[in-house]
Design goal:
Elements (H helix, E strand, L loop, with lengths): L17 H15 L3 H15 L1 H8 L3 H7 L1
């Protein structure tokens, strides 16, 4: 029997524009009923998709602070 080969899936690689990011966050909010841990993970995915350096610059926070928070 042949083994199935799997690869890691990273949602951040598929969030290409603000509309997709907003739709992803909205879906996460609907599916989790406000689970703070899951929402923080979703925000982290979006931040990685956008680029942590860009998010840090836009928010006025350091990249390190963002990584700790998300």
């Amino acid at each position: 029997m042949a083994k199935t080969k799997t690869t890691r899936y990273d949602v951040a690689e598929h969030l290409r524009n603000p509309e997709e990011m907003a739709a992803y966050l909205e879906a996460c909010l609907e599916e989790t009923n406000g689970d703070a841990t899951f929402i923080a993970k979703a925000l982290g995915d979006i931040a990685r998709a956008k680029g942590m350096s860009q998010v840090a610059q836009d928010s006025g926070l350091s990249r390190e602070s963002l990584y700790k928070a998300l």
